[in-house]
């Protein structure tokens, strides 16, 4: 009735312990790898945190770092256990700990799966966060003399150059805000006055973009100003010009970059889950085989190893019964006190009766 | 006349052999590191090969790679020799091998030092190579429709953005050449006609720079055109404006970058050179100490080790003689041996 029963001779037990020792050290390396992956992802997210509105996406690297550290600890314990496993005097002290260890290992696997799921699920939140962050960045581009915002211009310029993108959705976002600071506008000039009067808020709007939107791959020197006016430049057609500026929006570019990063870590995380599961199963087999061997008269004989003593249904019922027992035990005390008090009263009555009858 | 004689009791010999074995494995790793550093430098030089006129500077990474590979072999043999050193039965088979081995090892170790010296000495060559390369790059910036030169514009733009520099010496280099292609010039316009008539070669010269010269750290949007005209822009002074465009020239930026790289690599290679030298010196001491033991019954006696049996000059002549004879530069020895063989039978 045991689940996945296997026979283990002494030789096989020794081999299992040795193999598990190696596997658990491999799992320690994998835990360190997961931790480093989490750190790397966190650093990459922190580098661009000026264009992100909130930090929900940081759950993914935080979880990776936590799981990495926990997995290093758990697998180190596993290696100690299997070092002691072949020594009959030292193995029993690990008995109690192993139950907890199994729970921790299963929890780690579940958390790693959750990380993979989260990295896909949080894409929408990331995009929202970038949308708001970039909108603010573009709005405060001109405020190079306002304390706290004076580096926005440099940040946005370097972002657009590095990720080869322009604006939030596309380059037309620059047409809708004033990105030239008032300090550099000649308010006596007719052109400036016309532009400021042309809209309700009195902003200096123009159909131009900053130099960081320029695409170096373009065969002609960059056209930044009067973009919508085909006659302003020789041999220029606004609708069909593709190479002059970056056509991609920065939100798209950043989302693609981060999703690519998280997707590439996906296979690594999945293989770590597999390694952790194999450590878990091997540890269970080793524990049951060694326990069986210690119960025999000749410790060098053959024993059986299994994953569960009974099958799944029976084990589940047993676990349920134990859990209910624990709960009942908490409730039994007041009930047994009442019952005990009643009994005590009854006994007192009986003895009183006996005393009176005797007397 | 012996150079650096030292006494070696048995225990000291054993310790020397063990220490040398460890040291030679460290030196093997160091040799692999040298090879890697050479590859790194070569890759970095090739990335910017389009703005370099000649490849003289490539001799530095090539030498480093050769030395790295050679030192792998040298240190492998060193570890094998000192493994056999304490075994009196196996050591004599290395006898004939050791003399050429030391000659080759010294040659490659000296070559390592030469590579470091060259990396400093070739700064001038690198600078003139970059000067010519950048001048061509800037001149062919506009030729985006000429096959073979169509990527010059992109290369120069990306170079200026990455190294935060403008032009060859400085941004004024862009004023002296036509960097806007004729395809995008309206020849019916008066402004274009005036500019073309204003110089002998009929080039369209502007006092403007490409967008890749713009400095993102500037508080104002980039001013690219009419740089020398103060009245063309509000609140702008050509003489005092510092942050608008990059003031550094690309030649200086690239030279600084490569010299910095070679200084860092040079420091590493110098320490590897010292490590390699100590391996060779220790091996020499071990060899001479063990040679005195050969043939004796009691292998645990105290022996003497030295670096050179005769003085430095005599040893050098001793090594050079076979080489010079081979090159037929020294005919005396041949005549001498010919005379000896004729007199011997008599």
Q: Could you provide a short overview of the structure?
A:
The complex is a heterodimer of chains A (359) and B (346). Chain A has helices at 10-47, 59-84, 95-121, 123-139, 152-163, 190-197, 250-295, 312-358, and strands spanning 6-8, 303-305.
What's the quaternary structure here? heterodimer
Total number of distinct structural domains of chain B: 2
Q: Give the total of beta strands of chain A.
A: 2
Please list the strands of the largest sheet of chain B in the order they lie side by side: 1-2
Shape of chain B: elongated
Helices and strands of chain B: which structural class?
A: mainly alpha
Percent strand of chain A equals under 5%
Mean of the pLDDT scores of chain A?
88
Average pLDDT level of chain B? 89
Largest sheet of chain B: 2 strands, antiparallel
Report the C-alpha radius of gyration of chain A, rounded. 35 Å
Explain this structure.
The complex is a heterodimer of chains A (359) and B (346). Chain A has a domain at 3-137 and 263-323. Helices cover 62% and strands 2% of the residues of chain A. Chain A contains eight helices and two strands. Chain B folds into two domains: 6-137 and 252-324; 171-247, no CATH class. Chain B has a two-stranded antiparallel ribbon with strand order 1-2. Chain B is mostly helical and 346 residues long. Chain B has helices spanning 10-47, 59-85, 95-121, 123-139, 152-163, 190-197, 250-293, 312-326, 331-343; strands at residues 6-8, 303-305. Chain B is 58% helix and 2% strand. Chain B contains nine helices and two strands. The chains are: A mainly alpha (359), B mainly alpha (346). Chains A and B meet through helix 5 of A and helix 5 of B.
State the main characteristics:
heterodimer; A: 359 residues; mainly alpha; two-stranded antiparallel ribbon; 8 helices; B: 346 residues; 2 domains; two-stranded antiparallel sheet; 58% helix
